[in-house]
Design goal:
It is built from eight helices and seven strands, in the order H-H-H-H-H-E-H-E-E-E-E-E-E-H-H. The protein has 243 residues and is of the alpha+beta class.
Length: 243
């Protein structure tokens, strides 16, 4: 539900700015897109999108967030830094998606492909690049509408070869995220289970995240897993896979 800024926080009680510069740009882009989508959709859904988009655009334009104000948060003084995954993704915060797929390849091949993080843009359409800094840290770039780019650094926090990879974004990320991938051998091949969590400047607005990346988070994950399956299964089992 859109927040009535004027009613919730009179102008005289507001700080001038409590949202960081990068977050303001993302809020403006998301808000404009949602408002436009609402005008096109019409009806109850259209009104909801328009209200959410307008509030988000105002948040970006003014650089002021009532939720931050109520929580005593001032990201303008932190350079707009976000990224505390425990705080931003705990409880009911953020967007959570989970899916699994079975791939007819051995577990070492499937794990090896995923572990080479530079491969992931081949699976996730909105990902522009993933640069692996070392065995633990990597830099991610995603593209959104109006040429907007979202960047974040990630850390692998748990790794069990051929069984588990878990990661989280680091402080300062435009997009706060965390997740894990588990690999399990079955008689049909390798079962891959992915759990992902996201938090954007729009909070838990799945509609905003969907508009920014072109589809719902759940559909993004499903499409990515199907691309992974197609790519690995289309490679001749007798030939070495390009990892």
């Amino acid at each position: 539900m859109a927040t009535n800024y004027a009613r919730a926080f009179p102008l005289s009680n507001r700080p001038s700015v409590n949202v960081g510069s990068a977050e303001r740009k993302i809020s403006l882009a998301l808000g404009a897109g949602l408002a436009l989508a609402g005008l096109i959709a019409k009806g109850r859904k259209g009104r909801a999108l328009t209200m959410t988009g307008t509030s988000l655009a105002l948040r970006g334009a003014a650089g002021w967030c009532p939720v931050y104000a109520a929580s005593g948060i001032d990201r303008s003084r932190q350079g707009g830094r976000r990224g505390d995954t425990r705080r931003e993704l705990s409880g009911s915060r953020g967007v959570n998606v989970r899916d699994r797929i079975t791939i007819r390849r051995d577990i070492g091949t499937v794990y090896g492909f995923w572990r080479r993080l530079e491969n992931l843009p081949r699976l996730i359409e909105h990902l522009e690049s993933v640069a692996q800094i070392d065995q633990t840290y990597s830099h991610w770039v995603a593209r959104g509408p109006f040429g907007l780019r979202v960047e974040w650094d990630a850390q692998i926090i748990n790794e069990i070869p051929n069984r588990l990879l878990a990661w989280r974004s680091l402080e300062g990320s435009d997009l706060v995220s965390a997740g894990s991938v588990t690999f399990r051998e079955t008689r049909l091949g390798t079962e891959v289970t992915v759990l992902m969590q996201y938090s954007t400047p729009a909070g838990k607005s799945g509609a905003a995240l969907a508009w920014f990346f072109g589809e719902t988070p759940a559909q993004q994950l499903r499409d990515g897993l199907e691309r992974l399956q197609q790519e690995l299964e289309s490679t001749d089992a007798e030939e070495p896979l390009r990892l």
